[in-house]
Write a structure and sequence with these properties.
Membrane-bound Lytic Murein Transglycosylase D, Chain A; 4 helices
């Protein structure tokens, strides 16, 4: 009994294995198939991301329109009102008659859910001193806020009136709400 060596790739093809060329061709085909599959996945991810971005822009546009409608429903007179919304940031532009209206518009928009920041480019026809702002914390009441800012708890109605129509009841304020505190009560 002996050992005989043969050239593996030479000889008759009887179907018991692939030749080197066939193996290379299959490997190339498999590689091309994987590349095509990866390309499909990348395209699908890009398409999904583009669709998601488009949906976000549409949602932001709807929010902006809703904010504009809300400001109008509150009865604020804003010439050329334009509100843009992008990922929690509302940008307001337009012209108002006085500082009080400017502040009320800013607070109306800023105290809406999903609005984290208000950038404003509002022109004021009759500029005046800006009011203080107060962020409501746990335990605050309009009386307590009036006592803090004016030294007299009974002046709470001045704060209530300064924040109408956003406030409909002096007892209904909430944590995180921002209120206008006029300089004089």
């Amino acid at each position: 009994m002996g050992v005989f060596d043969f050239i593996r790739e030479a000889g008759a093809k009887v179907g018991i294995g692939d030749s080197k060329e066939e193996k290379q061709a299959k490997a190339a085909a498999a590689s091309a198939e994987r590349a095509a599959e990866m390309s499909k996945r990348v395209k699908a991810r890009k398409a999904a991301a583009a669709k998601q971005a488009q949906m976000r822009r549409l949602d932001d546009s709807k929010k902006a329109m809703g904010l504009e409608r809300y400001v109008r429903e509150l009865g604020f007179d804003v010439k050329n009102l334009d509100i843009r919304y992008d990922d929690g940031v509302a940008t307001i532009s337009g012209t108002v008659a006085d500082q009080e209206t400017r502040e009320r518009v800013i607070l109306a928009v800023g105290n809406v859910a999903d609005v984290g920041t208000v950038e404003e480019e509002i022109e004021v026809e009759a500029p005046a001193e800006e009011s203080d702002m107060h962020v409501v914390v746990s335990g605050d009441t309009l009386s307590a806020i009036a006592k803090e800012h004016y030294g007299d708890a009974n002046k709470y109605m001045a704060i209530f009136e300064a924040n109408r129509p956003m406030l409909s009841d002096p007892d209904k304020i909430y944590i995180g709400q921002v209120l206008r505190i006029p300089a004089s009560a």
